[in-house]
Write a structure and sequence with these properties.
The complex is a heterodimer of chains A (205) and B (808).
Chain A: E1 5-10, H1 19-28, E2 38-44, E3 47-50, E4 53-56, E5 59-65, H2 74-78, E6 84-86, E7 92-94, H3 104-108, E8 115-117, E9 122-124, H4 130-134, H5 140-144, E10 150-154, H6 155-162, E11 181-184, E12 198-199
Parallel strand pairs in A: 1-11
Antiparallel strand pairs in A: 1-10, 2-5, 2-12, 3-4, 6-7, 8-9
Chain B: H1 6-12, H2 14-25, H3 51-55, E1 61-66, E2 77-83, E3 86-92, H4 109-112, H5 114-118, E4 128-130, E5 139-141, H6 144-162, E6 167-168, H7 182-191, E7 197-199, H8 205-215, E8 232-236, H9 240-243, H10 249-258, E9 262-266, H11 272-277, E10 280-282, H12 289-302, H13 308-314, E11 315-316, H14 333-338, H15 348-355, H16 359-371, E12 375-379, H17 389-402, E13 440-442, H18 446-452, E14 474-478, H19 490-498, E15 505-510, E16 522-525, E17 534-537, E18 544-548, H20 561-571, H21 575-579, H22 584-596, H23 606-612, E19 616-618, H24 629-633, E20 647-648, H25 652-655, E21 686-689, H26 705-710, E22 715-717, H27 719-722, E23 732-737, E24 740-748, E25 756-758, E26 799-804
Parallel strand pairs in B: 6-14, 7-13, 8-9, 8-12, 9-10, 11-20, 14-15, 15-16, 21-25, 22-24
Antiparallel strand pairs in B: 1-2, 2-3, 4-5, 4-16, 17-18, 18-19, 21-26, 22-25, 23-24, 23-26
Helix pairs in contact in B: 6-20, 7-20, 8-17, 12-15, 12-16, 12-17, 15-16
The chains are: A alpha+beta (205), B alpha/beta (808).
């Protein structure tokens, strides 16, 4: 039995095409401004003129991320009305009907996974397509990826298959929440910090 | 410096945060509070009106269908979920297996967002006629009767006054599902006495014209699975992650890389493909590809890295030992590369100053490509939609040839690379009939045929007639936004079309009020591809046929293009011959038969196909076909269709055109008519390219909020160019040249070469009262000038200036 579902993300293969993001939006009817899965573009580096030539030291890669269904869900710990719960299979869930819109969870989550909707005065986030999972299916994002760069499953199995990397630049220290996330890093992530890379598309995520 | 964590970053990015909150506050959902869907925890907020349908008690149906084929580079499979006659969700191909031989056809962001187009409030709903001046965009609703009667009477008047050559059904690529699209109108025109024809396209003009001069054919590509046999793939101006170029093309490159191939991407932009598929990205100045290719040849010749045996046996015109009869003494390819005639050796040092690529990089890539056999040099189409696009095409073909990569598994001949063994997909089998009017113009020269058709002849690329008898007087644009938005020099085209003395009647059929539709005299509302029957195969590649059943009813008064044409035909006394008694569904059954008679003998009948709800019929590619296999095995027994039967590095046919400055007999780098090296660069120093963007298919899918959120329209500019202009990230900028100006937000990015800006093509021309486009159609900046050999569009050859703009 699965005790902790998690996502695998292959940053080396991700183009940033956002099919995952759109599959999520379509399945969950998320209007503009509400993104449960986002694709962060990390970019940095620069250019040097060498004679008549341009030599780039540009780094760029993407991080596709939804809620990481953390083993230590600080969102839930911060909720005053206990609207956030964790299932036995590890899926962290927001009960929209109980939510009072205080937004503590939003500020607690270091991954910006929780989204506030001012119209309904509630928060929402990725629910791992739990109903699809319960029916033996696949989360919409995972099934969507044209590069097959996403996977899901029991976290311990994912780690056996893909290793135990769960942090790449500039994601936060995973010990804060123990995210159920396994990442295959892009080659540029090792040199992203030294080349002053940053999330380049805040307006999109 | 310690790397800031993501959370830290958010705290220091309060601007972004605030703007996000403002954005969500504007969402304006009308949905009521969530209703519980099931016991236990609640499902989600019903924010979308369509959720009501999703929550209804009605049973959900799932129909597999093809993603609407708007001339995107892919053809993908969708699973469409319907309740109460409303599409509530779209998923994609999840067939078990998903092997390289028979992969799932997973849709991209555009297909996944399609509900937002399907249910867009701006869809055309009723027939309309023009109320103001042409182009003003003012219309009044009319009945179908009135609209169709008017069309028939205008057709009759124009036919009587000018003859059939005055009709034109222009290039338009909005629909390819057989029953929707321009082919339906072309069929009626053929039956009505014909219309001025065209050849070539806005996608492939130079590459489709140039490739056969080298190889005698356009079928120069292997089936894509063969890339897994390659050791080295040069993605030259090729960006399959964004423009697709075949569903799964990017996936196959990824698979080749996983197998150990080294992948190098040459492009002015660090594209999505460069980031995800390539081991190395080499930025190059736009329009200089042929210079780098020539320098690579120089290195290969000087270091004897080329395949001399292959050149001797299979090629023509490499050096003076193999020149064709009648061209002895002409400049050979080797002459050109070594500078024997013009005194300029095409060294990496020479190319560096032109391309902006370091000389050592050019030399290294030459060595890598020449020695890593087998290797692929894949030519994208961006580099050939340029002033001398034919040269880059031929230069790339020559590199493939002199390295001996032609006709072997894992190799690649370059050029347009239609798929072996038979050229790949048909796109359309719906019969347009034989056009009684034999005169044809290059598709890009239609404005010339409007303003001076009677003066056009062979010098303007006219085929099938010595000259044209008349100017174009009637345009019937179906699924076509190329009249305004996608044609070079929008402001010029708008002036031409606004003159009612020139084009006297302009009929447009579309889903939306596009910039082209704004110029309609009569504007007819067409249903979407989910609302009628359709059938599609691949785009450039494809080993499948995808059924597109009618899923929902056409809303309001919309009809299929086919139905509209049938009703016009009735008024011209041609209904019976036009329809042959067939409904839309009947024609799809007929089309399936055509496919069954070609590469797909096992195709089910329509009834079987529909009942199975399989959506797709595919032929697994276990042993990918390799182009030129026979020629490679025995060039005497299986010569090419070129005049010499060989790979023509030197073309006698081009030589005989006697225009060496623009159509040289061997491929050369020629400085573009607008470039960073010309006098125009003083005023317009930045090279602008209009790349394909994931938020649209050309100009289709414009205005879809989900897509605009994911990929906003904006100008991409390097900080080194933005800095001196005092332009900051997110600022509104004015991008302009002598042809026009657009104002758009900008994105500062390191992922574009200094000196180059990119404005994603396809955004809809939206002029303000001063004529400044506030949305950012790149064709406001592009030119109507055509290339010398292909008469093709050169819409990426653009020089501009950029400055900070004020909000309008």
């Amino acid at each position: 039995m699965v005790t902790q579902y998690g996502f695998f993300f292959n940053a080396a293969a991700c183009s940033g095409c956002k099919a995952c993001q759109m599959a999520c939006k379509d399945r969950n009817n998320l209007e503009p401004g509400i993104l449960w899965r986002r694709v962060f573009e990390v970019a940095g580096g620069g250019w040097e003129k060498k004679g008549e030539a341009w030599v780039p030291s540009v780094v760029a890669y993407n991080i596709s991320m939804a809620c990481n269904h953390c083993e230590k869900p600080v969102c839930g710990l911060s909720c005053p009305v206990k609207a956030i719960s964790k299932r036995e299979d590890g899926i962290v869930f927001v009960d929209t009907e109980s939510c009072i819109g205080c937004r503590y969870c939003e500020w607690a989550c270091p991954y910006t996974a929780i989204r506030f909707n001012a119209t309904t005065n509630t928060v929402s986030k990725c629910d791992f397509c739990y109903d699809a999972i319960d029916a033996g299916g696949t989360p919409a994002c995972v099934a969507s990826c044209p590069q097959r760069a996403l996977d899901f499953g029991d976290l311990s199995e994912l780690r056996k298959k893909y290793g135990d990397t769960r942090q790449v630049f500039p994601l936060p220290d995973p010990s804060q929440t123990d995210p159920a996330l396994v990442i295959k890093p892009h080659r540029d992530s090792a040199r992203a910090a030294e080349r002053a890379a940053e999330v380049a598309n805040w307006e999109e995520v | 410096m310690k790397a800031p964590g993501l959370k830290k970053k958010i705290e220091t990015s309060s601007m972004s945060r605030r703007s996000f909150l403002r954005w969500s506050a504007l969402v304006g959902s009308s949905a009521a509070a969530a209703k519980g869907l099931s016991a236990g925890f609640r499902r989600r907020d019903p924010r979308h009106a369509l959720v009501e349908a999703a929550q209804s008690a009605a049973e959900e149906r799932m129909i597999r269908t093809g993603c609407p084929s708007h001339n995107c580079g892919g053809r993908c499979l969708l699973k469409v979920f319907v309740r109460d006659g409303v599409i509530v969700r779209i998923e994609t191909d999840d067939r078990p297996g998903d092997t390289v031989a028979d992969p799932q056809l997973r849709a991209c962001v555009r297909g996944r967002a399609y509900r937002k187009r399907q249910y867009h409030p701006d869809r055309l709903k009723y027939p309309m006629k023009r109320a103001g001046k042409r182009g003003e965009g003012k219309f009044v609703r009319v009945s179908w009767e009135e609209a169709l009667d008017r069309i028939a009477s205008e057709f009759k008047r124009i036919k009587a006054a000018y003859g059939n050559q005055a009709f034109y059904v222009p290039y338009g690529t909005g629909s390819y599902n057989q029953i929707n699209g321009r082919q339906t109108a072309q069929r009626l025109m053929s039956l009505y006495g014909g219309s001025l024809g065209f050849y070539n396209s806005y996608s492939w003009a130079a590459i489709s014209a140039a490739t056969p001069y080298v190889y005698g054919t356009s079928v120069t590509g292997n089936q894509r699975q063969d890339w897994l046999n390659s050791k080295y793939i040069l993605m030259w101006s090729w960006n399959p992650a964004e423009m697709r170029d075949g569903t799964n093309s990017a996936y196959f490159v990824q698979k080749a890389r996983e197998k150990g191939a080294r992948i190098v991407c040459i492009d002015p932009r660090m594209t999505l493909s460069a980031v995800s598929l390539a081991d190395e990205w080499i930025p190059i100045r736009p329009g200089t590809d042929a210079a780098m290719m020539s320098a690579m040849a120089y290195v290969m010749i000087q270091e004897k890295l080329y395949d001399a045996d292959f050149v001797r046996t299979y090629c023509l015109g490499f050096d003076e030992s193999q020149m064709p009869e009648g061209a002895a003494g002409a400049e050979t390819y080797k002459d050109y590369i070594l500078g024997g005639r013009d005194g300029v050796a095409k060294t990496p040092e020479w190319a560096e100053t032109i391309c902006g690529v370091p000389r050592e990089t050019i030399a290294r890539i030459a060595r890598e490509y020449a020695t890593a056999k087998p290797a692929v040099l894949y030519q994208g189409y961006g580099m050939q939609r340029r002033a001398y696009g034919e040269q880059a095409v031929r230069a790339g073909c020559v590199l493939a040839a002199i390295t001996g990569n032609v006709g072997i598994p894992g190799g690649w001949a370059s050029g347009i690379a239609l798929q072996a063994p038979d050229g790949g997909p048909f796109w359309l089998v719906f019969p347009t009939g034989e056009n009684p009017v034999k005169a044809m113009i290059p598709s890009f020269l239609w404005t010339e045929a409007v303003i001076r058709g009677k003066t056009m002849g062979a010098a303007d690329g006219v085929r099938g007639a010595n000259s044209l008898d008349t100017d174009i007087k009637c345009i019937w644009a179906v699924a076509c936004n190329a009249l305004i938005n996608q044609h070079g020099n929008v402001n010029r085209t708008a002036r031409i079309l606004a003159d009612e003395k020139r084009v006297e009647f302009l009929l447009v059929q579309d889903n939306f009020l596009t910039p082209t539709a704004r110029f309609a005299d009569i504007l007819l509302p067409v249903c979407t591809q989910f609302e009628t029957w359709g059938l599609e195969d691949g785009w450039k590649y494809g080993d499948e046929v995808i059924l597109m059943p009618k899923i929902i009813e056409p809303p309001f008064e919309t009809k299929s293009d086919y139905r509209i044409c049938a009703e016009i035909a009735a008024r011209l006394g041609l209904e019976e011959v036009y329809t042959e008694g067939r409904t839309e569904r009947d024609w799809i059954a007929w089309s399936l038969d055509r496919y069954r008679q070609s590469r797909f003998p096992g195709l089910p009948t329509l009834d079987e196909f529909e009942a199975s709800n399989a959506g797709v019929y595919s032929l697994p590619v276990e042993r990918p076909a390799v182009a030129f296999t026979d020629f490679r095995r025995d060039p005497v027994k299986h010569p090419l269709s070129t005049p010499s039967g060989k790979i023509e590095i030197f073309s006698k046919r081009l030589h005989d055109m006697n225009n060496p400055a623009e159509i040289p007999a061997v491929p050369k780098y020629i400085q573009e008519w607008e470039s960073a090296f010309g006098p125009e660069a003083k005023r317009f120093p930045l090279s602008a390219i209009g790349h394909h963007y994931l938020s649209r298919v050309h100009s289709t899918l414009e205005g879809i909020d989900w897509l605009e959120e994911a990929f906003p329209q904006r100008l991409f500019i390097n900080p080194l160019d933005a800095g001196p202009r005092k332009v900051k990230n997110g600022d509104l900028v004015k991008v302009y040249n002598d042809r026009g100006a657009v104002v758009v937000p900008c994105r500062l990015t390191q992922r574009i070469m200094p000196g180059v800006v990119a404005l994603p093509q396809g955004a809809w021309w939206t002029p303000d009262k001063n004529g400044v486009d506030r949305r950012g159609s790149v064709n406001v900046l592009s030119s109507e000038r055509w290339t010398a050999l292909a008469f093709g569009n050169a819409q990426h050859t653009i020089m501009v200036q950029v400055e900070k703009a004020e909000a309008g």
